């Protein structure tokens, strides 16, 4: 068993978001691959960017993909600002050390938000456990999506894409990105 000194706290990233975002996609906490790359969903087998390429034409460099998401009205963030996470699996997150992001401020600053999507069940569970929904977020619709993580193999990429498309596509503006 690793000593406490060997287990580092994982820190989240700032949100990818413009003020006019209409959809917020929430993960749990960046994986080790994402931490190393300083990019959301950096693991090469994670289907997130492949799905976003289909829904929001998010392609190219990381900066270009982030710009495409924002132009489509999509914001990306994580439920947790930090937590002890000795591995990359959501099951490794030590909930007793979890610190949620400041959603009260985020919802006040993003008044056009209509839809909050959870990238997997763990992000939804943590949101419901740690986040008090402010009045500013009371009119939001919440949807759980199949995780894009390579660890979630219960659905094929095509099944994940179909579900993500059906929930997110009606809320985004693909016309701004073409």
Describe this structure in words.
The protein has 178 residues and is α/β, with parallel strands linked by helices. It has one domain: Uracil-DNA Glycosylase, subunit E, CATH 3.40.470. The chain contains 6 helices and 7 strands. The chain has a 4-stranded parallel β-sheet with strand order 3-2-6-7. Strands 1-4-5 form a 3-stranded antiparallel β-sheet, covered by helices on one side. Helix 2 crosses helix 3 (62-71). It is globular. The termini are far apart.
Structure described in brief:
The chain has 178 residues and is of the alpha/beta class.
| CATH class descriptor name | Alpha Beta
* Number of helical elements: 6
Question: Number of DSSP strands?
Answer: 7
Q: Supply the number of structural domains.
A: 1
Distance between the ends = 51 Å
Q: What ranges have pLDDT less than 50 throughout 5 or more consecutive residues?
A: 1-5
Question: What is the name of the CATH architecture?
Answer: 3-Layer(aba) Sandwich
Radius of gyration: 16 Å
Name the strands of the widest sheet in spatial order.
3-2-6-7
Helix content: 25-40%
Structural class: alpha/beta
Which fold does the CATH topology refer to? Uracil-DNA Glycosylase, subunit E
Give the biggest beta sheet.
4 strands, parallel
Provide the succession of SSEs.
EEHHHEEEHEHEH
| CATH-defined superfamily | Uracil-DNA glycosylase-like domain
Mean pLDDT: 89
Proportion of strand residues: 15-25%
How is this fold's topology laid out?
Blueprint: E1 9-11, E2 23-27, H1 32-37, H2 48-56, H3 62-71, E3 74-78, E4 80-84, E5 94-100, H4 103-109, E6 115-119, H5 121-130, E7 141-145, H6 157-168
Parallel strand pairs: 2-3, 2-6, 6-7
Antiparallel strand pairs: 1-4, 4-5
């Amino acid at each position: 068993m690793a000593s406490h000194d060997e287990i580092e706290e994982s820190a989240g990233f700032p949100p990818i978001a413009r003020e006019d975002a209409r959809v917020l996609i929430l993960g749990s906490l960046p994986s080790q691959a994402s931490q190393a790359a300083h990019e959301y969903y950096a693991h090469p087998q994670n289907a997130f960017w492949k799905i976003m390429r289909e829904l929001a034409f998010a392609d190219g460099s990381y900066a270009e993909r982030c710009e495409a998401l924002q132009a489509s009205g999509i914001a990306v963030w994580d439920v947790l600002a930090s937590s002890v996470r000795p591995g990359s699996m959501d099951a490794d997150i030590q909930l007793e050390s979890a610190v949620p992001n400041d959603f009260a401020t985020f919802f006040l600053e993003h008044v056009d938000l209509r839809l909050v999507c959870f990238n997997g069940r763990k992000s939804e569970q943590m949101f419901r456990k740690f986040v008090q929904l402010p009045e500013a977020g009371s009119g939001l619709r919440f949807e759980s999506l199949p995780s894009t993580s390579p660890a979630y193999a219960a659905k094929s990429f095509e099944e994940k894409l179909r579900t993500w498309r059906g929930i997110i596509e009606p809320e985004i503006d693909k016309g701004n990105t073409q």
